[in-house]
Amino acid sequence: MNHENTTAVASARHFSVQLSSTRRGARLARLLATEQLRSWGVPFDAAAVVIGELAANAVLHGRVAGRDFRLTMSVEGRTLRVAVTDTRGDRMPVVGPGAEESGRGLVLVEALAERWGVTSGPVPRKTVWADIGLVP
Hints:
Shape: globular
Strand order of the largest sheet: 1-2-3-5-4
Strand content: 25-35%
């Protein structure tokens, strides 16, 4: 396989969309993502929950008036990486003691993902990401 074909195959497993920081935007993120995963032939049940929680958190806790959030997904090997970027880099997610009552969604993310984390920057952004294992 030549380099040109390899690039085309790799880009076929990458999806990114910018959405409004509204409840409608969060719902649309989940719907668009599940349709994209379905078109890739990738299991999407766990991913739909993770995407829904990360998008809802971006809208509830990461919202800045007039600014959007971005959903990015990519498949590499047997791992789906889901990433949601918002513009409130000063507000990091909290899990466990000290989390607000609405912060329980990250417990679901923690349970369904192989690992998850937060990447800061560039200012004023942060990206919350989760790696989900794909069953062969």
